[in-house]
Specification:
The chain has 13 helices and no strands. The chain is about 60% helix and about 0% strand. It is mainly α. Its EC number is 1.-.-.-.
């Protein structure tokens, strides 16, 4: 009971801090309006936000659009080929793991876009009939700020709660069951976890309201960061190795997710001082973990990944639990499985460490 109260107290405190963080982009926008004396919302119909795209970003728009449509899958494929060529999966990609990873990669791409399109084209005009493009006047830089905070902070909470609430953990467990890191498992998620990705609908709503171009840029940047943070190629190692790069590393590892910080989140143990599956929840930004005290930084990489009580459950049970249950005895995804879950950690978090 005391543990539940401590957890509730921490979540309440951090939720109040989050309200302030969500408000920062709006406060920045109001300050800009105050300093410039501009009130674009009174200047007639909203402008297309592409007209407000800074010249320095205009050349990048087609690049970002192409990357979002076909560039990212090609990038993931090439990175995955490189990982296999380097032998980084260590023969852990069994038939069951392979099937699960491939289904999780392709199925959402076939099913979720139509869902989002229906939400954007049918539901939003019904719910907000007079608000399409209402925020198209917002400056591009502020749109980036709004989308980045709204999207990634929401995902931080979605992710964190799936670790701290036992029932919710089962929907996220699939992503942590892989005994390896890499492109093969980066999109490995239970389908229900994916379809209720709250920030997906939040971003779609903000796009409908006129922030489509900033959303495009944030989506592409976030995809690159989260994809490479899951990669088994430790691209951040040079920043730790060479002293001249240490200042850059200090900023980088506290700002965004890197292989070292995110691999720690996928470790199968917290006992070695490197793994930290009860924290390091950040997706694009690691700074949320810094603010809420849920992160550690060691500049080291775990020796093993996954979950200790993994039963190698059938791919369909991991992808579609609770619609399909596992037949593995003792599995928490079985019909009568124990509620093990990711044990709730309510002890004070360790301070951010630096190797």
């Amino acid at each position: 009971m005391a543990s539940d109260q401590t957890l509730a107290s921490r979540i309440t405190r951090d939720a109040l801090i989050s309200v302030f963080l969500y408000s920062l982009p709006i406060l920045a926008l109001l300050l800009w309006c105050q300093l410039t004396g501009e009130t674009p919302w009174n200047d007639g119909p909203p402008k297309d936000i592409s007209h407000a795209l800074p010249a320095a970003f205009q050349f990048a728009e087609p690049v970002f659009r192409n990357f979002k449509s076909w560039g990212l899958p090609v990038f993931i494929l090439l990175l995955g080929v490189a990982e296999f060529a380097l032998g980084l999966y260590d023969n852990k990609w069994t038939k069951n793991e392979k099937t699960l990873d491939l289904v999780c990669f392709f199925a959402p791409k076939l099913l979720i876009p139509p869902t989002i399109a229906f939400f954007s084209l049918q539901i939003l005009p019904y719910l907000l009939p007079d608000y399409k493009g209402v925020f198209a006047w917002v400056p591009f830089w502020c749109g980036l700020f709004i989308i980045a905070v709204a999207d990634d902070l929401t995902q931080y909470w979605y992710h964190r709660l799936h670790h701290q609430v036992p029932f919710m953990w089962r929907f996220h467990r699939t992503h942590h069951s892989a005994p390896y890191m890499g492109m093969a498992m980066a999109s490995r998620q239970n389908f229900i976890y994916t379809i209720f990705f709250s920030q997906t609908y939040l971003t779609a709503t903000l796009t409908y309201l006129g922030l489509g171009l900033p959303a495009l840029f944030v989506t592409v940047i976030k995809s690159l960061i989260t994809t490479t943070a899951h990669s088994s190629i430790p691209w951040d190692k040079p920043f730790y190795k060479y002293r001249v790069l240490h200042p850059v590393a200090w900023v980088l590892e506290r700002l965004i997710s890197t292989p070292a910080t995110h691999h720690a989140h996928h470790a199968d143990s917290n006992d070695d001082g490197i793994g930290h599956y009860k924290g390091n929840f950040g997706n694009m930004f690691f700074i949320w973990d810094v603010i809420f005290g849920t992160g550690i930084i060691t500049r080291q990489y775990p020796a093993s990944f996954g979950i200790k009580f993994y039963k190698e459950e059938e791919w369909y049970a991991q992808f579609l639990w609770p619609i399909f249950k596992s037949k593995k005895e003792g599995s928490e995804l079985a019909a009568d499985g124990p509620e093990v879950g990711d044990a709730i950690d309510v002890a004070p978090q360790p301070e951010l460490a630096r190797a």
